[in-house]
Specification:
- The chain has 140 residues and is α+β, with helices and mostly antiparallel strands.
- 16% of the residues lie in helices and 44% in strands.
- Strand 4 and strand 5 form a beta hairpin.
- The longest helix is centred in the last third of the chain and has 14 residues, at 100-113.
- The chain starts with 7 loop residues before the first helix and ends with a strand.
């Protein structure tokens, strides 16, 4: 059977890049992490302590991507890690409409991600420090 001219490109398309889990730190397991504590300028964030955030790092085609779930909607974007410092690139935010506390919590987290994040991993917990704010996560 002859292939009509112009449709050959449909038959030779390449497969989409594969997404694989990536570790935030060499000693940290590659998994999704859920928040167990957080502070903003030294003040506890109860919503973060109750699992209000989930974060994961993925590799797609050799590039890193940060994927997060907030109390409001998902947030994701490219990321780079240099040593112990995570830097998020331009973030995409899910289109869910959020009001009151959930919207404020998401905005706080997005602002947190706009600064370089110093990471450490010890005794099963992943700690992020950004300015005077801190988030602590445990593997899921």
């Amino acid at each position: 059977m002859a292939v009509p001219t112009g449709s050959a490109s449909l038959l030779t398309s390449s497969a989409p890049p594969r997404q694989t889990c990536a570790a935030f730190q060499p000693s940290a397991p590659c998994t999704e992490y859920v928040s167990i504590a957080g502070t903003a300028d030294g003040i506890d964030l109860p919503w973060a302590a109750s699992g209000g955030l989930a974060v994961q790092l993925s590799s797609v085609g050799g590039s890193l991507y940060l994927i997060a779930k907030t109390p409001c909607s998902p947030v994701s974007g490219p990321a780079t890690i240099t040593g112990d410092t995570l830097v998020a690139g331009k973030l995409g935010i899910g289109a869910m409409g959020c009001v009151s506390d959930a919207g404020s919590q998401q905005q706080w987290f997005v602002d947190f991600l706009k600064r370089p994040i110093e990471m450490s991993f010890s005794q099963g917990t992943l700690t992020w420090k950004s300015g005077s704010d801190t988030l602590i996560f445990k593997g899921k």
